[in-house]
Amino acid sequence: MKYRSYIFSSKLAKVVFILAVFGLLFFLNPYNFFNPVRAVFLWTITPIQKITCSVAYKVYAVKDFFASVWELKQENNRLIKENLELLSKNAKLSDMEKENIFLREQVNLLPREKYTLIATTIISRDPYNLENWVEIDKGEKDGVQKEMLVIVSNGILLGKVAETNYSTSKIILITNPDSIVNALDIKTDAKGVLKGQYGLGLVLDMILPTETVNVGDEVISSGLGGLVPRGLLIGKVQEVKMSQDKLFQRAIVVSPVNFSNLRQLFVIKEFNR
Amino acid sequence: MKNKFLLFFLIVFLAIIQGSGMAVFKHSPNLLLVSVIAATVIFGFMNVLGWVVVAGIVCDLLFFYAIGVNVVILVLSAYGTSFFSKRFHIENRGLSILSMILLILLSTVFFRILSGLADSHYVLSQIPLFLKGIQYDIILNCGAFFVFFYFFRKIGAIF
Questions:
Q1: Structurally, how many domains does chain A consist of?
Q2: Is the overall model pTM greater than 0.80, yes or no?
Q3: Do B19 and A135 touch (CB under 8 A)?
């Protein structure tokens, strides 16, 4: 009896008990069961998150300031913004050029995608540097729903809504391996499936060996499947290689967006399919 | 009772700082992990076990993990720390500081791999990806560990 009580009060026994209980919880995964608790918890702390986040951005800006010469910083910021706009404009124009040729042959033209956007601010992000997700300050009360797409400045695809709470939502970024988007090379029309790689970048996979993909080509969403509109810029091809089984080509794609210092995002509420 | 509330708010505050503050920077210390390790070294495993579970649950809720993931990781880290510190008599002197750094190194790698695996649905081939840039995290975690270590030593018997 004494021996038994010693076993159950020992350090190892307690650890095993806790691991068993929480391991079971995790493997049985009653994720939705805890969602109301999570929603209330997140709703309670959202104001503190907003304040913390805005202080962090200010600290980041100060750090940034000391890290660079003032004029260079200004110029750099302006050029980055301009570059993002031009990249996205360029992608849209290239796509429109092709679309125009195609549409000349068609009757009853439909208008290009027009988006209804919800402007949001990031209040929290993946703390383990894997660039998997961010949390935004808009939720169900603002009309955000699961699977809605998220973009940054002028149509650069960033991710999609994975979870919604009353006042906040979780966005999984395209760098998350769970995120899969049908994409194509603007210049050559080579199609593939775009997957994330834990903050290391993006891979355009499953490209047929007969198709051509060149380094520097822009990659956009292909619109296949209808969930993602065609023409959202994803990035530029950095490297092309064959898959290990030599059946497909794989292109490493680099997004023009710096995920680590993003602040403002837009959720696409509606778009014309 | 007052202390318990204070500790709970400290844990929530650290988690918020981690997710909403530190995560803005490309590399940041894992505040909850290092505070758990420092508290285990100073106060002993059995005295902090309950709070480690609370910290794990707070992380799971805040960082969108399924409930249990961070609890398991933090409890294992605390147990490993207790096991290690008993055998190597971790104190603030000479070689002991090296032992502490080794402890942080092992905990950081362990934490990164387990949280990454939980995130990637246990795809073992992804492990090298989770360890990208870990050297900066280890350095930052070491710095944060010593801050917590001296802080906990100063405030004494909070638990």
A1: 1
A2: no
A3: yes
